Amino acid sequence: MRYICTSIVAMLIVAGTSFGDVVNEDFKLVAGDPGNYDRFGYSVSISGDYAVIGAWRDDTGRGSAYVFHHDGTDWTQQAKLVAADGSASDNFGVGVAISGDYAVIGAYGDDDKMSNSGSAYVFHRDGTTWTEQAKLVAADGGTNDRFGYAVSISGDYAVIGAFGDWVGGNSSGSAYVFHRNETTWTEQAKLVASDSAQNGYFGT
């Protein structure tokens, strides 16, 4: 049965692509200030004419994220995002997401609650300027939760994964939903698996 399923998946992938099709690279994006071991490109997200790219090892693990804008012809770096209160080993940029005028950047090594409890930052675009609007942390954050390793945003909602959270056992994991009301982001729900178990890494 395993081989049959694999064959079906392969056929579905091939069905949308002709064997003679060639996919060409349109653009190559690089940081305006590249450095050794920055890990630029570890996480990426795109929405409309904007792309955000994480570089979580930049500046000895403080981390950063880069916003690029497509003007119809080319992609140009518009901003470099960093946490206002960032410090070494926060790993800001390990997870990135963008939706419209908002971007959310995870920093799973941040220690605001406890060691490696993690955080996520929301940035808002006004014209060509990106400004940090909010810092998100879990209300019940704890040691090694790794909140911010995975992030996503859509409209007025953001979801942040915390794969190290201890719910149904060590590293069973969880995810948190935040809702925006004008410029304020509020934790609305904590999501856990119904069959949560040790090393489930829910939220990765």
Structure overview:
The protein has 204 residues and is mostly beta strands. The protein is 7% helix and 43% strand. The strands form three sheets. Strands 1-2-3-4 form a four-stranded antiparallel sheet, with no helix packed on it. Strands 5-6-7-8 form a four-stranded antiparallel sheet, with no helix packed on it. Strands 9-10-11-12 form a four-stranded antiparallel sheet, with no helix packed on it. The model is unreliable at 1-17 (pLDDT under 50).
Shape: globular
Kindly estimate the percentage of residues that lie in beta strands according to DSSP. 35-45%
Count of DSSP strands: 12
What value does the Rg take, in angstroms? 19 Å
Question: For the largest beta sheet, what order do the strands appear in spatially?
Answer: 1-2-3-4
Q: Structural class per helix/strand content?
A: mainly beta
Largest sheet: 4 strands, antiparallel
Overall average residue pLDDT? 90
Oligomeric description of these chains: single chain
Q: Give the helix level as a range of percent.
A: under 10%
Element string (H = helix, E = strand): HEEEEEEEEEEEE
* Distance separating the two termini: 29 Å
Low-confidence parts lasting 5 or more residues at pLDDT below 50? Answer: 1-17
Number of helices: 1
